[in-house]
Amino acid sequence: MALLAVLTLYSSFYPSMGMDVGMEQFIQAMPKGMVDALGFAAITSGAGWVHSTFFSLLGLFVLCGAGVVWGKGAIAGQEETGVLELTLAHGISRSSVYWQKVAAIVVRFVLLGFLVALGLAVLNGPAKLGRDWGKVLAEILSYLLIGFLCSCVALAIGTGTGKAGPAVGGGAAVIVLGFILDALGKANADLEHLRNF
């Protein structure tokens, strides 16, 4: 619901803000390095608006936050509460539990991807986004994979340590460091290799 609310909020502002001449002038007045770092180069198009406001900012952090919570809770959360021991006492192996938790997280991300795609389909016309669906599906897939990576890091650290704190820290570090390295790579041509990293 949070993702759909954020998507709806940002998309509904596009006709009044993104298509406004003032937005174009505002972007031109900003330093090029800052425009590139924030991903605002194409913000005046519908696709650029959704990419810059939803897929690269709040929508990304909401998705990754959910992924980190799921990854943390899958093993470490159950380890700390003692629930995992009850499961293992029924003869289920740790590796089986681990892979079932990964599968459950994948299903959650697929459902979120479907909901985001559905939200974009509904908002595309009224918000005048003009999205190319081939590119939308590729963007949703990459968006989900970033969230899944954060979730997998949190799950792996939680599995290794049995503690929720380090799992949350590790999963959150992926998105925060990734966001910073991407911004630095966009802002400075000499640091462009950081974006690929």
Automatic annotation (TrEMBL):
The keyword Acetylation is annotated on this UniProt entry: no
One function term, GO molecular function aspect: ABC-type transporter activity
Keyword Protein transport carried by entry: no
UniProt keyword list: Membrane, Transmembrane, Transmembrane helix
Transmembrane segments: 57-77, 97-124, 136-158, 164-185
Top-rank taxon: Bacteria
GO cellular component annotations of the record: plasma membrane
Descriptive protein name: ABC-2 family transporter protein
UniProt organism field: Corynebacterium gerontici
